[in-house]
């Protein structure tokens, strides 16, 4: 069977099951299974359909069954799980993706299991503990790394995991054991479970991640598990949560840290979506600005003429020249903005390090999820400074693990002389660095957890954006992953302060849909507030939900008594929804508040025109024209209302002013209407010709405009039956 046919089958079955057409789905699944001669799966389909049939008989009897919803959700989950197993089995035959290549390779190792690999890894770690002879060999850890890679791969591609697989994984991730596995191994196991879960839904994996989040005393392991669980639940948010997982999730939500961790992760997932924008800003604004620094100063920088002694002593006077060059410049503004983004946790290094992901190290998928380990063979081989460089990198909180490996590996590609100079500079700054790192390490527990989540999501983002075979994976960052839209996660998340922080982040960073969802949840657990209603309305308006925005603006008006900002947004939204008369009422209130505001007068005139109150509209356009004499906008409104009020002589004079100052196609069209209504068809034809010729629009565009205005022309007393003849005459006149 072709790959596209398998994908279509999976999508079709998913749709039928979610729509409730289970009988059709069972028949199609059985045919697919029998075609592949997977009789054991066929038996599972038969058993599940029997359960479904029994449930339906109970429904038909009319008996009350409070557990029916849970039973049905379980059947749906099991059916979707069978579809996963069927399609995975079909893909295994020829799908060239890395997942299936790895699974086929592992399938040839009949005597190997997660359990046997974990046992072998433990033995190798003990050997290393007692192997003092090879302590100086940078490759001494290679055997353990290979075993950890094999564990990662097996946890990633085995589906579904057996009870023994889960037990072995728990043993590996358990940090409460008498002799626990290394922290980086525990973290790698969690990431492998996450990657496998994102490929195929597996309740056992999800339960493992949630349980690990609750039990881990190592924040790195616990928060990785937490992020993985959230990513998977977002990926499969349409699936009902199985009862066993729901129970573990409910227990996790009882954790005193759940709400804060959830708010942190919700923000960090969305923050990752800004990475490309930040990188683009770096490449288009900051770096080009740096290149504009005075050539003499740039030459000094490139030549290294700033001596190390003055740097070590503190401020180098030469930098005053650079400071003078950039102070108040666009570069200074960009750097300040980027500094603020970095201070808030934004990913400013993605663009800088993306080109460093070409090392062979990153060809091995496990290394994208490996916490930075300064004793790793790849780091030890690149570090010729007695481990100083690796040790320093391991303690740098501003870089994610992936970028730390990039820096370490880059050292091996630098010529020896430059490597020594670079290391000398690092050592010179070590005291200052140690002070800074000390403060970070003394940060609150919540700050540590936040930094772990931030950096781990950056690791994930790099994998999904930069891995050479990234197109084969479901990209959790393909859209804006809003965790508040996963009901199973967000239910019960009612901490007003944290919800407000999430909503504020979404709003400030212009994630309008997500902000609207957050404001909705916040509104349900807190007292009404004018500012929130305003922001909620604005988010809805930017998302395109004008009716929803009007409702929120009306609420804000009641709460704040009608601030200028609220009245402007409300009036504008009403106009766009065609409620011109109501909009005019709000503009009238604004005009009373701001009698000298030309934009209020102008928009008031537009609303009155749309409401059919042309006399009042004309007065507002006169006022706007007086208040903004250099603008053509009020003159256009004035001329049009003069035409609608049949003041043709005045309209002709106003259009003469407009045309004398720079007319557009619409001005020529409307001037033609005025001339025709005045009885001067020859002049009207000339204006229509100018409208058609404007920027090469053509007669066809003019004809469309004339037909659109047919009812207006008729109201002005013009016989519109001859419109087509007018157009034909223009075509022949060319």
Mind explaining what this structure looks like?
The protein is mainly α and 734 residues long. Helices cover 72% and strands 0% of the residues. It has 41 helices and no strands. Helix 10 packs antiparallel against helix 11 (219-235) and helix 32 runs antiparallel to helix 33 (598-610). Mean pLDDT is 88; it is low at 300-316.
Spatial shape: elongated
Which structural category do the helix and sheet elements fall into? Answer: mainly alpha
Number of helices: 41
| Unreliable residue stretches | 300-316
Strand proportion: under 5%
Largest sheet composition: none
Q: Could you tell me the radius of gyration in angstroms?
A: 34 Å
Q: Give the total of beta strands.
A: 0
Helix content: over 70%
Cα distance, first to last residue? 62 Å
Average pLDDT for all residues? 88
Please specify the SSE layout and strand pairing.
Blueprint: H1 3-19, H2 22-35, H3 39-60, H4 68-91, H5 98-107, H6 114-130, H7 142-157, H8 163-173, H9 183-199, H10 203-215, H11 219-235, H12 243-253, H13 258-272, H14 275-290, H15 295-303, H16 308-313, H17 319-326, H18 330-344, H19 350-353, H20 377-382, H21 388-394, H22 401-411, H23 416-428, H24 430-441, H25 445-466, H26 487-490, H27 496-508, H28 512-525, H29 530-543, H30 546-560, H31 564-576, H32 580-593, H33 598-610, H34 614-627, H35 633-644, H36 648-662, H37 665-677, H38 681-693, H39 699-708, H40 710-715, H41 723-733
Brief summary of the model shown:
With 734 residues, the chain is mainly alpha-helical. It is 72% helix and 0% strand.
